[in-house]
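Please predict the structure of the following assembly.
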Amino acid sequence: MSSPEQWTHPEPDAAPAATAAKPTAEQVIAGLRATDEGGADLVQLLTPEGERVSHPDFDIDITAEELRGLYRDMVLIRRVDREANALQRKGQLGIWVPLLGQEAAQIGAGRAMRETDMAFPSYREHGIAWTRGIKPTDLLGIFRGTDMGSWDPVEKRFHPYTIVIGNQVLNAAGYAMGQKFDGKVGDDEGEATMCFFGDGATSQGDVHEGFVWAAVYDAPLVFFCQNNQWAISEPTERQSRLPLYQRARGYGFPGIRVDGNDVLATLAVTKWALDECRHGNGPILIEAFTYRMDAHTTSDDPSRYRLSDELEMWKLKDPIERVKVYLVRQQWADSEFFEGVEAEADALGEELREFCTNMPDPPAERIFSNVYAEGNPNLEAQRDEFLDYVSGFAGGEH
Amino acid sequence: MSSPEQWTHPEPDAAPAATAAKPTAEQVIAGLRATDEGGADLVQLLTPEGERVSHPDFDIDITAEELRGLYRDMVLIRRVDREANALQRKGQLGIWVPLLGQEAAQIGAGRAMRETDMAFPSYREHGIAWTRGIKPTDLLGIFRGTDMGSWDPVEKRFHPYTIVIGNQVLNAAGYAMGQKFDGKVGDDEGEATMCFFGDGATSQGDVHEGFVWAAVYDAPLVFFCQNNQWAISEPTERQSRLPLYQRARGYGFPGIRVDGNDVLATLAVTKWALDECRHGNGPILIEAFTYRMDAHTTSDDPSRYRLSDELEMWKLKDPIERVKVYLVRQQWADSEFFEGVEAEADALGEELREFCTNMPDPPAERIFSNVYAEGNPNLEAQRDEFLDYVSGFAGGEH
Amino acid sequence: MAAPTMDRSAAAAPASPVQTLTISKALNLGLRAAMEANPKVIMMGEDIGKLGGVFRITDGLQKDFGEQRVLDTPLAESGIIGTAVGLAIRGYRPVCEIQFDGFIFPGFDQIVSQVAKLHYRTQGKIKMPIVIRVPFGGGIGAVEHHSESPESYFAHTAGLKVVSCSNPSDAYWMIQQAIDCDDPVLFFEPKRRYYEKGEVDTTAQPGKLFESRVLRPGTDATLVAYGPMVRTSLDAANAAAEDGTSLEVIDLRTLSPLDLAPVFESVRRTGRLVVVSEAPSESSIASEIAAKVQQECFYSLQAPVLRVTGFDTPYPPSKLEEEFLPDLDRVLHAVDRSLAW
Amino acid sequence: MAAPTMDRSAAAAPASPVQTLTISKALNLGLRAAMEANPKVIMMGEDIGKLGGVFRITDGLQKDFGEQRVLDTPLAESGIIGTAVGLAIRGYRPVCEIQFDGFIFPGFDQIVSQVAKLHYRTQGKIKMPIVIRVPFGGGIGAVEHHSESPESYFAHTAGLKVVSCSNPSDAYWMIQQAIDCDDPVLFFEPKRRYYEKGEVDTTAQPGKLFESRVLRPGTDATLVAYGPMVRTSLDAANAAAEDGTSLEVIDLRTLSPLDLAPVFESVRRTGRLVVVSEAPSESSIASEIAAKVQQECFYSLQAPVLRVTGFDTPYPPSKLEEEFLPDLDRVLHAVDRSLAW
Ligand SMILES: Cc1ncc(C[n+]2csc(CCOP(=O)(O)OP(=O)(O)O)c2C)c(N)n1
Ligand SMILES: Cc1ncc(C[n+]2csc(CCOP(=O)(O)OP(=O)(O)O)c2C)c(N)n1
Ligand SMILES: [Mg+2]
Ligand SMILES: [Mg+2]
């Protein structure tokens, strides 16, 4: 097959992009303000400096153990992300979609879910996958081209990655309607659904229709929009005049903006939203205000469209660092703990590399399998003819 | 061809719908409240009783002559509507889409436009068509099946009727972007676009995308939603939790609810909105709160899904009566005027009947014409073969 | 079939097992039987509740099964299909009504990208037992977008199954079989034939869903049609018989997968084939049939496969549909050309 | 062609009239030339501005023509196409980029219901000079939805024109001709061939847009292909020549309307035809070609028309695309079967 590199570097002969994009001073200012400031409505419980702050509506009691768990989740999933990114660079994956910078948004949201809840991801939700008990190795096939995700979506209550922007929002609305029709909504034992999408996705008709459906059917659905400030090369300003959480206003359900780099705030807000949904008060929109620290995918070159200053600024808001500072300051974790997590991360990285480089290519007949649940004689004939042809070929014929 | 009647009466053998739909008492109350009350934000300048009231933000100086003109417009277009409806009953049209009850919404909006403005209708906008100088007879072909509208949309600045719900909203957004790109926006001489759609349409993805585009490109576009309380058999509650004008909140542009049975208020609000757009402050959403007094189309049987009480209530809010009362009370019009308008209506009805019954069927080659602007040799061959076949047939062959 | 295979005759059959019904009534009874047999079967669409659908195919179902099983949805086709996907994942078997053929396109993306692919994407872990009902075709004097024949788009889409019924018995049984099927089925209903009548035996399934059927045996040439054109083809065969020409008529019933074995068999005998369809011909199901038959019956064909179809134009204003739609004369003209080759 | 027909060579031609360019660069220069020639030509799409598109086809255009002529649009394909319709009515000539083949479906409704029909609906009073550029096909090791070949959906849609280029010269000229065309054109770009090079003479249009072209004459059998499969077919013809088999290769270039005259002429000489396409075969353009050729060349065919295509499955995970996509060996295998018929 054509090598993944071709995909990664669309123009093999081209010189590297000359310089970083150079917007006007005005644009810089606008750009920096837009991505940096979450605004007055931003829900935050742990500042970038690791200070615990309180919030009138959303607060959370967290134990040392729980917070250590969240820290560990974030470190491990970041390591998975960096390893996979490196595996792509080595030609072991065709492409990778980095989550770097969005660990708190995903771990916070994911850990707010119960096992009985259901999740519909987009394609960058490696952190959510982790919280649903999906092995990181189960993600690799998608990006290596051996499968389209190998977990069981029903068992894990984690839908396949959806690549067509917005599609999964309607699918999630339908699922949540089903939860309600099944009588699983109305008390604390209720079920709920979460749906993940990006800032760019909010422009798609399907996302709107998902809002309409969920509102009209009172579906137990939490819309979780990770506003990472960019849709590939387009800043959020190209999708909306208003902060995205305010979109909910027009539909008659709550919209909340949370600091998506604050795992505590994200956990608190998402838990609340899920609880509202289980009790029958859905849907709810959460905008997690965060930042895509890496390229859109390994095929992307962000230097063409954004300034490194922006990145530098967001580094100060790192989702993991602030938790570490807080854990240390509270004396909730010692260096042994941190080293232990590092060691776990190393082992996980090793496992990932090992697994990836040994992944077998799928057999050719896989092309034809599972197109239909109940078969298709014409396709079976096509398959048989092809396999005959291939085996004739192998036998040295032709 | 199959007779239009077949279309009109889907089930020839079926007994007439047994009884009117019988909702619960609760539903009745809810239903009546929902369709009757415009709420506190409703902009009104002329009450159903014909009292002129003032409004802090939207008011209008109207001369006697202008108001007589609006009255005349409404009476004439209602006559057109009733005649066409009758023509359908006589089998002269395959179907008709009545505007009965929406005269004020359409005449108010239409008369607010300037010649240089552009309009994108849905399929019920006979009143808007009238204000754009389209002859009512030009509408008939659509419903008789001889053409798809015979006016020149560019010359009249009135787009063809759009039947696929929501499509025209994006088309209008694009046109309005073009007005802006052409430098025609920014001062009192600016151009603007109006787009018409129904309450049901607000659920469609295209309408949302039209909102997104217009907002992001500051397009000079007035979204004019005629909330006639029903999308065929579905009440507005099936589309939204909130009053529809509030949908605009989530996009960052104004949304206003106007009494769509009040031609003065509709004129005032629409003029204001268009002016905002010409000056570069678009887009704006107007919800005209009105009522579909007749069936959805001549094929529809509203007794299956709504109560006659509702209709009775809305009769008290008739858009034409209140203007008549006001004209009389102000002594702006005398019986000579009213009789004159009646006579004009009679003549128009006569013309319509005459025209309709004499409409020639289009020639068979029309099937093939104007599929492409620059032709298609394969299609031309197909046409020639067919015409040969037909003429051979005519010659008694076969 | 994975769905519970209850004995439906007991639950759903009216007094006499054999009745004369219209296609529309047969569909209505078939839907009712499917809802009675399996509580997971739900209906979704615009105006299908109180109104019973603009064609009344779902008449009475909301009254009897409630608003949670017969959903008057918001007005958006992507929403209908997209939420049906989620409901299917949750274990429901949604039956979506698209009000008219021309309004399926806002839902096209969800059909092509999700409905058709989820089973493949998940290697069978997610099934998509969704039926999308589409009243299709022209001949009813309607305005634009209400008379289209979009079935070829779906036949071209791997992962979907596409069927069309042509008579009340098939309408009654095929809709139930489609609902039982664990694959997504596009179900095309010949709207101009909704009020044609025929006998329906509600006690015995007359055959399988994905099978074509020879409706009338013949020896001189073969006609293949589906949906509304089956009637036209049978009429043509009747007329031809009066002239001494014996036409075999095959009702395709399944458009994807195509079941062409009976067609091959027939063409090997007759040597001539005319495919009849309302849809424009370019890159269509009719093209596929011609492509397959010329390959399978290369030495048997005494004339090329001919197609009698709608023209490659948008559907015209309805005063022209009589010319646009294949009729008895155009079919016979093609037969004549084939016989004269 | 109604658009101003300026002399573009002066405005856009680089120093030497004949240059060696990649397809991607040729497209970029072609778009630039069209923008220079006519101020009403605008570009719309996702990431086409600063980024220059994910394939850099619009590289540098926003910088030179401004944000009002090269629009980074909101992320919604129905929005892109739907607003392009309005802009076209306003007098613009929009060129829309769909980022990848699989993402055209959210825009399908606007294409089928408005773009394809407005000219017909208004009896020619509204023109739709819109180009929809679609990088299409597989072979690049991508994830799902990034390797599809949806062209048959559009070929089946009356009112649209559909073309595909296979080499840099055609890329440079066909994109300009498509933009000049007053009909809507779906322009399919063979993304796996973007970086193949060839000579482009920027001073002389080599031919018309809606014409097929014999790329290599031959006598034993005819190969017909388009887009990415043209290279594959030429390679196959080269390999066959070494074995003493002479294959004629025709580049379709126009997929709708099909220009099959050169194919008929060829088949009348060779008696054998193999159609090569990446798209699934069922109800496809390849089916249409087979259907037409069996009719027009009934007495000339010495073997049935054979099709070598992608299989009737969703596009598989990319590790399997080498097997999924027709390659030289599969083409030659079909040629062998045809010759042995
Ligand atoms: C319908 C559709 N159009 C285009 C694309 C190509 N595409 C992939 S990701 C992307 C940007 C998405 O941005 P956003 O929603 O903000 O999510 P993020 O990638 O930032 O997480 C685009 C345009 C797609 N996958 N689907
Ligand atoms: C995409 C699409 N789906 C369905 C229809 C069928 N249909 C025609 S009108 C209508 C209801 C529209 O309601 P609303 O938007 O409130 O407008 P109104 O008819 O009340 O003026 C429906 C469902 C359509 N025309 N287009
Ligand atoms: Mg983003
Ligand atoms: Mg309405």
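The longest helix of chain C spans residues 23-37. The CA atoms of residues 63 and 94 of chain C lie 18 Å apart.
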